[in-house]
């Protein structure tokens, strides 16, 4: 069956493959003060594959931020909860609340949104 929770290759991005693991990870997030970037993508999405190395690089650069990847085909209920209509969509979450969103494979906008959130942290 494979891992239900993994890190892809040498990436610092956590890939979540099951609803149970998502719920467990979400509860852990709620108990922390960390910014979490949720990468909603699909293995069949060209732009998702295009931006993946950039997301991995950001995860290595911003180690105080949690980067999580969700395949919308495997966890459609999670994508629906976050109102994801297009992939890739990046949802930035802090203390359980959405604090930013980037729709599309726009590396510059994603990095700027992450940096804005970092400047606002307490």
What does this structure look like?
This protein is of the alpha/beta class and 122 residues long. 39% of the residues lie in helices and 26% in strands. It has helices at 19-30, 46-61, 76-81, 107-120, and strands at 5-7, 14-16, 35-41, 66-71, 89-94, 97-103. A 6-stranded mixed beta sheet has the order 1-2-4-3-5-6, sandwiched between helices. The longest helix is centred in the middle third of the chain and has 16 residues, at 46-61. The chain is globular, with a radius of gyration of 13 Å. This is Thioredoxin. Residues 3-119 form the Thioredoxin domain. It comes from Musa troglodytarum. InterPro entries: Thioredoxin-like_sf (IPR036249), Thioredoxin_CS (IPR017937), Thioredoxin_domain (IPR013766), Thioredoxin_H-type-like (IPR050620).
Short description:
The chain has 122 residues and is α/β, with parallel strands linked by helices.
Average pLDDT reading = 90
**What is the 3D shape?**
globular
Major β-sheet, in short?
A: 6 strands, mixed
Number of strands: 6
Helical amount: 25-40%
SS element count, helices: 4
The percentage of residues in β strands lies in 25-35%
* Major β-sheet strand ordering: 1-2-4-3-5-6
Derived from helix and strand composition plus strand pairing, the structural class reads alpha/beta
Low-confidence stretches: 1-9
**Cα Rg:** 13 Å
Order of helices and strands: EEHEHEHEEH
Alpha carbon gap, first and last residue: 41 Å
Protein name: Thioredoxin
Organism: Musa troglodytarum
Pfam family, one: Thioredoxin
InterPro entries: Thioredoxin-like_sf (IPR036249), Thioredoxin_CS (IPR017937), Thioredoxin_domain (IPR013766), Thioredoxin_H-type-like (IPR050620)
């Amino acid at each position: 069956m494979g891992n239900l929770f993994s890190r892809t290759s040498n990436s610092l991005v956590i890939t979540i493959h099951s609803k149970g693991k998502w719920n467990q990870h979400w509860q852990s997030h709620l108990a922390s003060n960390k910014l979490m970037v949720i990468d909603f993508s699909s293995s069949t999405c060209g732009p998702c594959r295009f931006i993946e190395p950039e997301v991995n690089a950001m995860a290595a650069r911003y180690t105080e931020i949690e980067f999580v990847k969700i395949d919308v085909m495997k966890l459609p209920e999670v994508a629906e909860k976050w109102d994801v209509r297009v992939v890739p969509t990046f949802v930035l979450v802090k203390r359980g609340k959405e604090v930013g969103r980037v729709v599309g494979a726009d590396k510059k906008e994603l990095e700027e949104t992450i940096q804005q959130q970092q400047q606002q942290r307490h």
